[in-house]
Amino acid sequence: MNLTAHYQEIAPILEMNSITKRYPGVLALDNVSFHVKKEEIHALLGANGAGKSTLVKVLCGVETPDSGEIILNGEPVTIPNPSDAIKLGISYVPQELSLIPTMSVSQNILLGQEPVFHKPLSLIDERKLDGLARKMLALVDLDVDIHQEVKDLPVSDQQMIAIATALYRQSKIIILDEPTSSLSSNEISKLFEIMRKLRQDGQTIIFITHHLEEVFEVSDRITILRDSVFQGCYEASKITRDKVVSLMTGKKGLMIKPATGESKVGQEALRLENVDTASISKNISFTVLAGEVVGLFGQVGAGRTEILRTIFGADKIESGDIYLFGEKVEIKSPLDAINKGIGFITEDRKNQGLILSMDLLDNINIGVYEKSMRFGLIQKRSLQKISEYYRDALKIKSNNLNVWAKFLSGGNQQKVILAKWLNHKSRILLMDEPTKGIDVGAKQEFYQLIRELSKTGVAILLVTSELSEVMGLSDRIIVFRKGTKVGEVNPKTATEEMIMSMTL
After folding, report:
1. What 8-state DSSP symbol labels residue 236?
2. Which stretches within 201-286 are classed as H helix?
3. Integer Cα distance of 174 and 85 in angstroms
4. Which pLDDT does position 8 carry in this prediction?
5. Is 177 helix (H, G, I), strand (E, B) or coil?
6. Nearest alpha-carbon partner for 164 in 62, 103, 93, 115
7. CB under 8 Å to 218, separation ≥6 — which residues?
C-alpha cells in the first residue's frame, strides 16, 4: 500500500483544534475542534448563536483565537488577517454577497489580481482579464455577459460569480454561508450541482445552512455546535434528522425564571392579514393582544425582522392589511408608526436606536421635546425630571444624565431606547433581538422589564434567536421558515426540539 496516498485520503485538509474565543462577558467558542477532509462537502450546523460565525471568523483571519491551533495540509498556520487566509487558499462567500454592484462581472472576479501590461505602464490587460473571467465562469457553468454590471444580475448568478472569484484565487477551501437563503428551488438545485462538481474537481466546501433537507441532500459530513461547544462530527448518511435537532437544541438550563400566574390580556392591539413584505415574508397573518408577549421565532433570514420593519413603516408593505386596535391603518413611514403608538427596539441599537454622541437627556426625550416646552422654549428642568423618572424606573446605571450614550454598557443603552419609547407612550412595542450583546445580569433585568410592561397592557412583538428567551417570555410563539408562518405553538406545552424542528 502507498502510505502517503493513504494518508492523503484520510487526513484532514483543515484541523482547528481546541479553539477558544472570548468577548467581554461572552464565551463565543469553548474549546471547539473542527476537522474537514479534502474534497468533501462539510456542513457546519448550530442554532443561532451556537458559535458558527465566530469559528469561521477565526478561520478567515477576522478574529484571533485566545487559544488553540489551526493546521492546514498538515502544517500549523497562523491567520492574522483575511488577506493571509486568501493566500492560504481559504475563501469565504458570505450570505450578503460582497460583490461591487457597479463593476462588471469580469472586474469583480479578478478584483485586486488583475493581469497588467508591465511596459511602459502597469495598465490592466483587458483582453487577458476577460479571458480569465470566462474561464472561471465556465468552472461554475455560468453563461453571462462578462461586461455587464453585477447589480443587474439575479442573486443566483451573483452567487456563482462569488464562487468563481474564490476559484480564481486558487482557493482549496470555500466557505458558503447560507448560500441558498435567496434562491429558488431550481436555483438551489443548480448550486448543489456546482458544489458536487467543485468537490469532484478537488475543492473542499464548508457549507453553513439552517435547512436540514439541504444538509442531507448535499453534505458528506456534519459538524454540530451548541452554546459555543462542539457536539460531534457525523457522516450525513449515518445520522438522523431527529438526532441532529436534538444535538442542536440540547437541554440548556433555563436562565429565565418562569412567570407566575396567568397573563392578563385585553383587546386586540395589532392584527396582520395576509401581509407580503417587500422582501422575503409572504402571506403573514397573526394577532397580538394588549398585555400579550408574542414571540416570532425562526432561523436568521426567515423573515421575522422584515415583518417588524414593515409594521414600523421602515419597509414597504406589498399587499395585505394592518389593523391597530380594530382599525385598519396605513403605515407609510416610521413617523406614521410612532404617531400611532408603535415603538421599535431594533437589533442594531448603536446605528438605529440611539444617537451615540448625544446625552441621555436627549436620547430619552428625542421626538417628544414638546412635553418640556414652555412658551416655545425647552425647559431643561423638565427634561431632567422626565429623564430621572425613566432612569430610576428602568434602573439605568448612570448618575450623570449628560453622559453620551456611547459610554454606557450595552444593557443600559438598551434601557435608554426603551425609556424613549415609553416616553412616547407607545402601546405596541416591536423588539428585535433586545438582549443581543448584553451580559447575563442585564438580560435578567430586561426580561423583568418585558414582563412588567406586558402587565401594564403594552402589546409586545418579540423577535429573538434564543430558544430559552422565546419560550420563557412569550405567551404564544409564531414560528417562521423561509419567509412564511409555519405554525403557532404554546410555549408551556411545546418542547425546544419541536420548535427547532419547525424552523429547519
Report:
1. G
2. 212-218, 241-249
3. 11
4. 44
5. strand
6. 93
7. 41, 192, 195, 196, 207
**Residue 161: how many other CB atoms lie within 10 Å:** 25
Tally helices (H) and strands (E) across the chain. 17, 24
Same fold across 10-249 and 268-341+427-503: yes
* Domain residue limits, the chain: 10-249, 268-341+427-503, 358-425
Burial class (CB in 10 A: 0-12, 13-18, 19+), 357: exposed
Strands 204-208 and 41-45: parallel
Q: What is the pLDDT of residue 6?
A: 37
Range 10-249 classified under CATH 1.10.10.10: no
CA distances for 200 relative to 31, 136, 193, 194, angstroms: 32, 16, 11, 10
Give the Å distances, CA to CA, from 244 to 188, 229, 237, 239, 487: 22, 15, 12, 7, 21
Distance of alpha carbon 188 from its chain centroid, rounded?
20
Looking only at the bridges linking them, the beta strands covering 484-489 and 428-432 are: unpaired
Looking at residue 7, its pLDDT comes to: 33
Low-confidence ranges of the chain (pLDDT < 70): 1-10, 25, 48, 118-122, 181-182, 251-264, 369, 372-373, 378, 437-441
pLDDT of 253 reads 42
Element housing 22 (H / E): strand 12-23
The pLDDT, as a whole number, for residue 127 is 85
268-341+427-503 folds as Rossmann fold (3.40.50)
Among all chains, which residue has been given the C-alpha cell 453553513?
A: 208
* Cβ–Cβ under 8 Å, residues 462 and 431: yes
Q: Compute the distance between CA of residue 318 and CA of residue 310 in angstroms, rounded to an integer.
A: 9
- Contacts (Cβ under 8 Å, ≥6 apart) of 24: none
Average pLDDT for the chain: 85
> Among 30, 82, 88, 24, which residue's Cα sits nearest to residue 55?
30
Cβ(394)–Cβ(276) below 8 Å? no
Cα atoms found within 13 Å of the Cα of residue 115, Cβ hemisphere only: 11
3-state secondary structure 285-338: EEEEECCCEEEEECCCCCCHHHHHHHHCCCCCEEEEEEEECCEEECCCCHHHHH
Q: Is 115 exposed, middle or buried (0-12, 13-18, 19+ CB in 10 A)?
A: middle
Grid coordinates representing 473 are 417570555
The residue to which cell 401594564 is assigned: 456
pLDDT of residue 256: 60
Question: Can you tell me the distance from the alpha carbon of 330 to that of 323, in angstroms, rounded to the nearest whole number?
Answer: 9
Q: What is the 3-state secondary structure (H, E, C) of 407-419?
A: HCCHHHHHHHHHH
Give the three cell numbers for residue 465: 434567536
For the chain, the straight-line distance linking the first and the last C-alpha, in angstroms and rounded, comes to 44
